[in-house]
Write a structure and sequence with these properties.
The complex is a heterodimer of chains A (340) and B (326).
Chain A: H1 2-23, E1 25-31, H2 36-49, E2 53-58, H3 62-70, E3 76-79, H4 85-90, E4 95-110, E5 119-120, H5 122-130, H6 139-144, E6 156-160, H7 165-177, H8 179-184, E7 197-199, H9 201-211, E8 215-220, H10 221-226, E9 233-235, E10 241-242, H11 246-257, E11 280-288, H12 294-308, H13 315-318, H14 325-334
Chain B: H1 4-40, H2 42-48, H3 51-54, E1 58-59, E2 64-65, H4 68-99, H5 102-117, H6 120-140, H7 144-147, H8 161-186, H9 189-197, H10 202-212, H11 214-230, H12 233-238, H13 256-263, H14 270-308, H15 312-325
Antiparallel strand pairs in B: 1-2
Classes of the chains: A alpha/beta (340), B mainly alpha (326).
């Protein structure tokens, strides 16, 4: 008797749950892990404003996001590096890239007896990663850092072992400032590193750098800020040494806005302008320009309008650099390309 | 109406078909895995052919892929791990089954088996925060004359082949030791009694038991080896992830399982993805190969036993149930 009631209650509960999901419109997306915290914040905030909209996001990596867009198993994708020509050709139709927030990559290091924030020019950073500069007291490092006493310790390069957008941004920058790096290593989410050891994830790289005397590595700006890891400054295209901050990263995007291509597939590493941090990048959401499911597309367009305006104010708390208003204006215009 | 005996034989047939189906599932699963790996790595198979097995470059940017450093890293780390873990695991097994006081037996066995239940990410974290700094200290105090030996050359990074082999050894010990312990427990008491009756010492009696159970013990070691070959997370956290072929225990290297886990999610390019899947295929082939060798080893050992000691009573005892089944 009692168990019948329990079953009845369960059944009713199930029905209620079914009815509830019947009202909402679930939309599935997948892709980059780097913007996952801000995206999940956005989706949950947007769900509070519009309870009928439920957006699910799987942070499976940029590569997976692009692949699932190509296979049409998700409604939208996300990536830290824009799709290349080959990937665009394979896609079922035109894909719209929309920058959402900005990230940056910073050099972190551990030199026994040195607390000062070191200055790195792009070429110096490239030569260190290539293994050409292999001692901390190399003339190239001491010349850029007058007044800092550097030991004759070996440099241990630490890089990401997992494929990652962070690596993509970092090597994209190094390839722009060093032709030699471009030729020997090149740009991808994983590359064939000439020297060094690999750590898994930001935490793996930061952990190895912290443990290994003489180590240098690179992590996301957010990771360094949240874990209070000090990092070096990098010389931008104008010759200034800039310590990465949310403002200097947003400045990089503003600098790039003038020459923004219409498809937003742009690298903003080594961007021109004053006060610009050079190892910065957009992260993108991917949409089909000719979606088959019009009602869902309409919801996503509305969501994007919100994310580009209201949504941007959540960025700083989570450590992301917000988009500059020039870019927001361009994107609001570009949203019209999604055929509803 | 059916007679009871015919109903029973129908039940028998049904049972045989049912269990046979489950056994067939395993075959289908293995064949399915092989076929799927083969099919999805076509692009890489066609482009590189056998060069994939011998190539030393892994360059996702230029699309040049060779698996040799990963094959080397996997086999080298696993073999080193077996060299470290096998004596320890067998020591544990022998102590637990032959020598330990009865009341210590259960808690000790429980603790060794508990090691097998620790998730590999926990081993990995322990490796990064405890083992690697210790290994680095050892490397720093390594005298210069020893560093000239290729096995100990290279800068003191902490992460590398040595750390990976040590962590693998710890992870493999419970597998090898618990199977070896079961094998020793299964050795008939008559074996030991016979040895003692002939005036054997305790050590000699244990040796006789080990000899009796050696096929099972080889099986236990192979099981541990299989575990070491496939381990991913803990290894990638301490091995340094640099695809290079070095004999040095200090050098960062890479394994097959680790590169798949690390690079699969972000491999957007078709050839790149296909090459990673081919690494999986290579790992599969090597695992099959290791298992085949272990079968051969066990087979040759049992044949030797049969040739040496013709045991008519034992043969009858084993043959009886087979005859009844037919």
């Amino acid at each position: 008797m009692k168990s019948t009631k329990v079953f009845l209650a369960l059944g009713l509960g199930l029905l209620a749950a079914l009815a509830a999901t019947g009202q909402t419109t679930p939309i599935n997306g997948a892709g980059a892990t780097f913007p996952y915290p801000i995206y999940s914040k956005w989706f949950s905030e947007y769900n509070k404003l519009h309870p009928e909209v439920e957006i699910n996001y799987q942070s499976i990596g940029s590569g997976g996001g692009i692949r699932q867009m190509t296979e049409q198993t998700v409604f939208f994708g996300a990536t830290d590096g824009p799709m290349n020509e080959e990937q665009i050709k394979k896609a079922p139709g035109p894909i719209l890239h929309l920058p959402t927030v900005l990230g940056a990559v910073v050099p972190v290091y551990n030199i026994p007896g040195v607390d000062a924030s070191l200055k790195f020019s792009g070429k110096l950073l490239a030569d260190i990663i290539l293994g050409k500069v292999s001692k901390w007291n190399d003339a190239a490092i001491t010349a850029a850092n007058p007044g800092v006493k550097l030991p004759a310790a070996d440099i241990v390069v630490v890089h990401r072992s997992d494929g990652s957008g962070t690596t993509y941004i970092f090597v994209d920058y190094l390839s722009k400032v060093s032709p030699e790096f471009k030729e020997k290593v090149g740009v991808n989410t994983s590359v064939n590193w000439p020297v060094g050891v690999g750590g898994k994830g930001n935490e793996g790289v930061a952990g190895l750098v912290k443990q290994t005397p003489g180590a240098i590595g690179y992590v996301e700006l957010i990771y360094a800020l949240q874990n209070k890891i000090s990092f070096g400054s990098v010389q931008n295209a104008g010759g200034e040494f800039i310590v990465a901050s949310l403002d200097s990263v947003t400045a990089a995007a503003a600098g790039a806005a003038k020459s923004m291509p219409s498809d937003f597939r742009v690298s903003i590493t080594n961007a021109p302008g004053k006060g610009v941090y050079p190892i910065s990048s957009f992260t993108w959401l991917l949409f089909y320009e000719n979606p088959t499911d019009k009602p869902r597309a309409k919801i996503m367009v509305d969501f994007m309008k919100w994310a580009l305006t209201e949504g941007q104010k959540y960025c700083k708390d989570l450590g992301y650099a917000p988009l500059p208003k020039e870019v927001v204006a361009l994107e609001t215009e570009a949203l019209k390309r999604i055929k509803l | 109406m059916k007679s009871p005996s015919s109903r029973r034989s129908a039940d028998d047939r049904g049972f045989r078909l049912g269990t046979g189906f489950f056994a067939l599932l395993v075959v289908l699963l293995v064949a399915g895995i092989f076929w799927e790996l083969y099919r999805t790595s076509q692009l890489s198979l066609a482009k590189f052919g056998f060069r994939f097995w011998t190539g030393k470059t892994w360059d996702p940017v230029s699309g040049e892929f060779g698996a040799l450093p990963f094959i080397w890293g996997t086999l080298y780390s696993s073999i080193l791990a077996m060299l470290i873990s096998t004596p320890i695991a067998l020591g544990i097994a022998i102590y637990l089954s032959e020598l330990s006081p009865r009341r210590l037996r259960t808690p000790l066995a429980f603790l060794t088996e508990l090691l097998a239940a620790v998730p590999s990410i926990v081993y990995g974290l322990w490796g990064v925060f405890v083992l690697v700094p210790i290994v680095r200290k050892l490397q720093v105090v390594t005298p210069d004359w020893l560093k000239k030996v290729p096995l100990f050359s290279g800068p003191p990074l902490g992460v590398g082949m040595g750390a990976a082999a040590l962590i693998l050894a710890v992870m493999v010990i419970p597998f090898t030791s618990s199977v070896a312990r079961e094998v020793l427990k299964a050795v008939p008491a008559s074996q030991r009694e016979a040895a003692y009756a002939l005036g054997a010492t305790r050590w000699e009696a244990i040796r006789a038991a080990l000899r009796f159970g050696r096929t099972g013990i080889i099986g236990a070691v192979i099981l541990g080896f299989g575990r070491a070959v496939g381990e991913t997370m803990a290894v990638t956290m301490v091995i340094g992830n640099n695809p290079q072929i070095k004999a040095s225990l200090f050098a960062p290297q890479y394994t097959m399982a680790a590169v798949i886990a690390n690079e699969f999610t972000e491999a957007a390019d078709d050839l790149y993805l296909s090459a990673l899947i081919e690494i999986g295929l290579v790992l599969f082939v090597i695992t099959v190969f290791i298992n085949a060798i272990s079968r051969l080893l066990i087979w040759s050992v049992t044949r030797e036993v049969k040739a040496q000691v013709p045991k008519p009573t034992a043969t009858v005892a084993f043959a009886a149930p087979t005859g009844g089944g037919q």
